[in-house]
């Protein structure tokens, strides 16, 4: 069972799970769902929740119809709905003694390497602090050009940058069927999909509800991102109480299996397309540490070549100027010039502020 073996899980909640057809907030469902999260945390699993619903809940509070909202007004409605949405989560999750935090992301936050790196670090630090991140698109500032438009795609990007094992899209359907089950009784649920071919694309006909902004098409788009990120993805029905428990018990959903491993996907993401912005020359001790899978520390750096910013793609070369690794820098070139050759416990004094100890973290590096 894919879910049992996973360590890091992203769960996306659709608007239809939080608000019913009569525009009533499903508080009981959210409370029961929090029990599912508590159960996962007891198994030492790390959980990120991506939720829709800010605009829908804002519309309910203001007694507005979401269908007629223009972008400018929807941003204002979202800012009102965000508070209501997080209050709902806080109230339900507090009852099960689950600490939550809010993370607002835009398209740029996951597409740009520096921002993606910062987002990943935020998730990791929240896990260390014992908090469950609740992620939503930053509807209050995002324009049409930089919006995801639906939280299925956002969830897939969150799964990608957080190196999640599994993404679960909870919706109001059991999964992907061979035909539309609402109009054809012969429709069968597809349990596993390894390749998204033209046939799969064809049957994922787009549909929208009053509160949701995406249909099956956006879920297939999300699955494509996951497959190339080494992440397993599920489309499952979340309408019943304790939906995660139901997946574990019945496995009545559609699973999309990854095409590559998480490690290969991360390596490809780090070294793909973008040219390195600079180089770091390291000593033999640092080179030996990298071969053992360690992070690059300031003490082992002898020279900085080029100018680059935090999060930029850089080359790591030995004293003979032979490339031995590539990675994403946690510091700017200016900062590294100040701290190179020094021990990690000296960094705060040298820079004048608290910072990370790794110049290039092992998770953000590919040895060549």
Task: Supply the key terms.
globular, five-stranded mixed beta sheet, Archaeosine Trna-guanine Transglycosylase, Chain: A, domain 4, Carbamate kinase, 368 residues
Topology:
Blueprint: H1 2-5, E1 8-13, H2 15-18, H3 27-42, E2 46-51, H4 54-62, H5 71-94, E3 99-105, H6 107-111, H7 113-128, E4 131-137, H8 151-161, E5 166-171, E6 192-193, H9 198-203, H10 216-227, E7 232-237, H11 243-250, E8 254-256, H12 262-271, E9 278-282, H13 284-291, E10 296-297, E11 301-305, E12 313-317, E13 323-328, H14 333-339, H15 347-351, E14 358-360, E15 365-367
Parallel strand pairs: 1-2, 1-5, 2-4, 3-4, 5-7, 6-8, 9-12
Antiparallel strand pairs: 7-8, 9-11, 10-14, 12-13, 13-15
Helix pairs in contact: 3-5, 4-5, 8-10
Please explain how this structure is put together.
With 368 residues, this protein is of the alpha/beta class. It has two domains: 2-266, Acetylglutamate kinase-like (Carbamate kinase, 3-Layer(aba) Sandwich), CATH 3.40.1160; 274-367, PUA domain (Archaeosine Trna-guanine Transglycosylase, Chain: A, domain 4, Roll). Helix content is 39%, strand content 20%. It contains 15 helices and 15 strands. It has helices spanning 2-5, 15-18, 27-42, 54-62, 71-94, 107-111, 113-128, 151-161, 198-203, 216-227, 243-250, 262-271, 284-291, 333-339, 347-351; strands at residues 8-13, 46-51, 99-105, 131-137, 166-171, 192-193, 232-237, 254-256, 278-282, 296-297, 301-305, 313-317, 323-328, 358-360, 365-367. An eight-stranded mixed beta sheet has the order 3-4-2-1-5-7-8-6, sandwiched between helices. A hairpin with a 5-residue loop joins strand 12 (313-317) and strand 13 (323-328). Helix 3 (27-42) crosses helix 5 (71-94) and helix 4 packs across helix 5. The longest helix has 24 residues, at 71-94. The protein starts with a helix and ends with a strand. 40% of the residues are buried. The model is unreliable at 206-214 (pLDDT under 50).
């Amino acid at each position: 069972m894919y879910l049992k073996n996973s360590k890091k899980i992203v769960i996306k909640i659709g608007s239809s799970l939080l608000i019913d057809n009569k525009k009533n907030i499903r508080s009981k469902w959210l409370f029961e769902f929090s029990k599912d999260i508590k159960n996962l945390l007891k198994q030492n699993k790390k959980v990120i929740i991506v939720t829709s619903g800010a605009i829908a809940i804002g519309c309910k509070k203001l007694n507005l119809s979401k269908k007629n909202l223009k972008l400018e007004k929807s941003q204002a409605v979202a800012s009102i709905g965000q508070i209501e949405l997080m209050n709902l989560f806080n109230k339900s999750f507090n009852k099960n003694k689950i600490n939550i935090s809010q993370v607002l992301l835009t398209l740029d936050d996951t597409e740009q390497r520096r921002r993606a790196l910062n987002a990943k670090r935020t998730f990791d630090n929240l896990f260390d602090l014992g908090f469950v991140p609740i992620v939503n698109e930053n509807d209050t500032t995002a324009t049409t050009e930089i919006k995801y438009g639906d939280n299925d795609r956002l969830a897939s990007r969150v799964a990608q940058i957080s190196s999640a094992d599994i993404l679960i899209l909870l919706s109001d359907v059991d999964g992907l069927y061979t035909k539309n089950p609402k109009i054809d009784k012969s429709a069968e649920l597809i349990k596993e999909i390894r390749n998204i071919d033209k046939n799969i694309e064809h049957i994922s006909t787009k549909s929208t509800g009053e509160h949701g902004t995406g249909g099956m098409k956006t879920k297939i788009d999300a699955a494509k991102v996951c497959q190339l990120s080494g992440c397993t993805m599920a489309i499952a029905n979340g309408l019943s109480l304790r939906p995660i428990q139901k997946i574990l018990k019945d496995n009545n959903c559609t699973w999309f299996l990854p095409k590559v491993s998480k490690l290969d996907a991360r390596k490809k993401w780090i070294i793909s397309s973008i040219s390195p912005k600079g180089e770091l020359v390291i000593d033999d001790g640092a080179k030996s540490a990298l071969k053992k899978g360690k992070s690059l520390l300031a003490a082992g750096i002898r020279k900085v070549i080029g100018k680059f910013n935090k999060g930029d793609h850089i080359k790591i070369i030995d004293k003979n100027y032979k490339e031995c690794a590539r990675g994403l820098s946690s510091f700017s070139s200016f900062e590294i010039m100040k701290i190179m050759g020094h021990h990690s416990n000296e960094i705060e004094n040298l820079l004048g502020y608290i910072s990370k100890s790794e110049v290039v973290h092992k998770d953000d590096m590919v040895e060549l």
